[in-house]
Amino acid sequence: MEPARPALTDASRRRKPIRPLLAVLVAVPVLVGTFLTVISTASAATTTIRGVGSGRCVEVPGSSQTNGTQVALRDCTGGANQTFNTTSSRQLQVYGAKCLNAAGSGTTPGTAVTIWDCNGSAGQQWDVNTDGTIRGVQSGLCLDATGAGTANGTLIVLWTCTGASNQRWTTTGTNPTTTTTTPPAGTTPVARHGQLRVCGTTMCDRTGARVQLRGVSSFWLNWENPGYSQNLSALRWMRDNWNLQVIRAAMGVEPSGAYLSDPSRARGQVETIINNAVAAGVYVIVDYHAHEAQNSRSQAVAFFSDLARRYGHLPNVIWEPWNEPLQVSWTGVVKPYHQAVVSAIRAADPDNIIVLGTPNWSQGVDQAAASPVSGTNLMYTLHFYSCSHGSWLRDRGNTAIRAGLALFVTEWGASHADGGTDGRTCLPEAQAWIDWMRANGVSWTAWKLHTGSDSTNLLRAGAPVTGGWSNYLHGHAPFVVANMR
After folding, report:
1. Is residue 423 part of a domain?
2. The pTM is what?
3. Domain span at 85
4. Lower CB density within 10 Å: C or N end of the chain?
């Protein structure tokens, strides 16, 4: 057997209800609460609101959808929680169903600017002026960064209009027009396939047809800069130009700055990707990107309980509770962890697919096959890197499939197991893997949506965060993209 693949010590691996979030081009189906409705876009324009003084964008902190959440400044990411629809009714809508709102219909300086269910009241109407100010119709006061603040987290309030830079904003985006970059409702992957389920050893859609999802994984979100995976325009571009059907949100857990040390930030990044996936009509894997998750089991249970409660009704979501266990016992360590997290997810989400990591950097699917986790719509993770892992690992996959397990390759590369620090690719062996996955209906997401010299980095330096990457492909990217199409 090949030596165990290094994880956090390896530089490459380190650089490693439905609500519509935007209404675009045509009316898109959304769920408000639990009822299907349609939001018209005939008079809407999508925009970000960037402070002239700060260069930062107005956002809903933590991608919250809770009424009364006060908006604030944050580095611009293009996420759904920073993207607003301006309408002919002078509303500034976010997530398609919430509006910028003067808290308590307040008309005095210092009134908090929050989000609230859109209700058409004067406290939710705004004049976006040519001088850069945004003035409340009811109050006559201006959108203001508190205390002329420019830092992340600066709260937004209403204040007497002064024309200062903390009250002037640039808006980007124009009225939607018909283009080839956003397909009409009904043609997105989720519109075509709907709710997914495990059928035998494969994945099926709502009609019972076999589905093989193909897409890409983010880099470790705690080290992702800029936020390629968190940009809605980029996601739509990959959907329309690469035929991407699924994106994986690899939420780092253990390193400094990851989930355990900064849970609010990490959760916000994941929720941005979920919300963008809903807007783009693609599937999304929520990946607890850990190597020693047994040490944070209670935190994982709380994390997945919370997200399953709030997002488990969506057909878009696939859960991945443990990315890559190390060389630990399946029956003694990994399986009990999965049983706890699966139980927590199923308490709120009875049917979305859950993909379970396996020992030795998710190469031990044969061990899982000998003692599978009880439950429905469960799949098992197999990871490969084609310069390091060959037919011997596919044989393990075949053993698992013969035993009745459904597999999902949530991470792979046409490189060595370190992520390709030598820049090398092994395409013939990668093609053997592609052929094997296709023959067995195994879905996949390729590692990783990032820039740099590693051969698994899909993008060259300078790639714009919003997509348009045809001339920026790097490393194994041409091979990955060709096999998504």
Report:
1. yes
2. 0.66
3. 42-172
4. N
